Structure formats: structure tokens, C-alpha cells
Predict the structure.
Amino acid sequence: MTPQRPRGADAQGSAVESSVDDTRAGLAFLSPDPGEGPLYAALDLGTNSCRMLIAQPKGSQFQVVDSFSKTVQLGVGLEASGRLSRASMGRTIQALRICQQKIEKHQVTRMRLVATEACRRARNAKDFIRQVKRETGLQLEIIATKDEARLAVISCAPLVSASTEQLLVVDIGGGSTELVWIDLSAVEPRGRSRAIMGMHAGFSGNSGAKVVDWISVPLGVATLKDQFQDVEDDSARFALMSWFFEENLANFSPYHRPAPRAGFQIIGTSGTVTTVAASFLGLRRYDRAKVDGLQMSSAQIDFVIRDYLALGPDGRKNDPRIGRDRHTLIMSGAAILQALMRIWPTDRLSVADRGLREGLLYAQMSADGVLEDGPDI
């Protein structure tokens, strides 16, 4: 399996204020303000989940008006058959109908609805896209891995520290994992977050942030789990998954460089990373305000992963910190995370409860010129 590539101490909460709410946090959504402009929708249909945000621009950020998230397991069986199954497509279309109802309810006219790895790989993806259009009226767009990586990077910009000279953004999805290594050493410290935002035009833009390398590994929490589902021993399966993921990073140029420590930051955005953070904090009910922007050390992450292994499959299934919709996938995600922390040991990993949806919203609002007094993204 060859990755797709382009050519050419204690945990601390971040002081960064988040621009979004999340349904898991149990927070009330804000009502739209007629004076603040139109509403925008961003939908991310991945290998495992269907997620959507509806938001309105608010100054240099945006406020969430409505949200949707559902585990649909679109990619179940894809590894073996190369096709989306009838059952998985049916589940997904049911979820998309709810999204369509929310879009109609809020009278959203500006939207971008994207599909990622499962639809990139499935032989019958075009038929599925046509079926979605026919049954829901929604027009899905299958985006390239480079666009997915770029949008994930943009969404994490508010979490970039002024002291960061080398940045690694990791987006662990259901079917793929995107890694982007960015050199910020030539950017004035106070402008480093803004430089990341300025990458909306592409990885070769003029923001001062230099992309050293990026890679999309076709292994995410669902596809990696499927690769080793025949291994019965829990610990052995975890070790094999972590090793196999690391093997797939051999062509990523920073893999062969000495690991920096000073001025180096990893930002992780995914359900895996936020679940590990919630587990570390002992949250029985997810709280986005406590998780987004949290900084964890390698030792703290290892502690949580060892705890997961000690629990075993049955223990993880009943652990409220993990949740019943994620317990079967948490170890494959943890294997990816452990591999990354082994290759690039660091004193901090920044946890981002944000990703493709937020990047899509920023990009749309920037194109329309409705973000005020903030980064030109």
C-alpha cells in the first residue's frame, strides 16, 4: 500500500478561544443574527463518520448555528471488495437526509459538501454520489488528499504557538491519515498563526509558511483496523498496527531527519486525539472547552494508551470516556498516535477538536469576504 504524495510536563489548557461549538459538548447553539450575513454549511463525509456544521460569520471567526455528527461506517467492507456496500450507503443516505433537512430549515445557500477517502477509493463512488443527489438533493464533491490536508491545517491555525518554528499537523481520519510538516522559522513569531491561515491559496502560497513535505497515508482508524482484524491477541494486534503505520511513513522526508524538540509542535486533529485527551482528563461526559487546545506530553499519551490496553476489548467497550461509537476504533487510532510520538518525541502535543469542516467554513467565508479584522484566509 503506497502513500499518495504530491509531486514536486502537565497538561495545560490553551488560552485560545474556540470559534465553534460541538454537539458532544452539550452546549446550546447560538441563534443566527440577521445582521451578520448569510449562513454557511460544511459537510465532511468520511470513511467512518458524517459530520456537518452550519455557521454564520462573526467578526474574524464564526459562530455555529447547528451541527450534526453520525457514525455511518461508509467504508465497511471496502478494504476487501473495493466497493461501498449497499448497507453502508443506505446508512449514509439516512444521515445525509438529516443534513439536508437542517440545511433547508436554516435556508442555507452557501455550502460545500465533501467526501474523502472511502469515496476516493471505491469503484462505485460515482454511482453513490448520483444516488445521494437523487435521494437527498445534496451534491457531494470528492476532494483530493492535498485539499483535505490543506483544509485541516487551516482549521488548526489558532492553536499554533508563537514559539513554534517547525510544525507537524496530523489529521487521523477513518480511511486515511494526513501529515503536513511546515517550516515557520522565517515568519515573525506573532504572525505564525496568521501565516498558517494564509495557506488557503495552496501549499505554495506567499504567507511565509513553507511546507517541507506532506503525505496522505491510506490508513485511518477503520482501514488500519481492517488490515489486522484477523490477529486475535489485543496487544499483538496493537503493536502490529503501530509498526505497519510507521512503515508507511518511510517516504515522508522529515521521517529521516533528527527529531527537533525546541520550537517543535505537533497538532493532532481527530476523534482519536480528542478521545485520548478526554480519557486523560477523566471526562465521563465530553467537554470540548476542556479538550480543544489541551497540551499533552508523550508520557501522558503513553499512560492513556497503556490504560486502554489493560482494559482490553470488553473494558474499552464499557468505558464512558471512550464511548460506544468509538471503542472498536480507538486502538487503531492509538497505534497511529503512538507511532507518531515514537518517531517525533516532543514535550507537547496540541489537541485540536477541529478539522475539515472548520477549514471548509473558513475557506468559503474568506472567498466571500465576510470575515472582518482577522487573518486573510
About this structure: The domain at 23-146 is CATH 3.30.420.40 (Nucleotidyltransferase; domain 5). The chain has a mean pLDDT of 86.
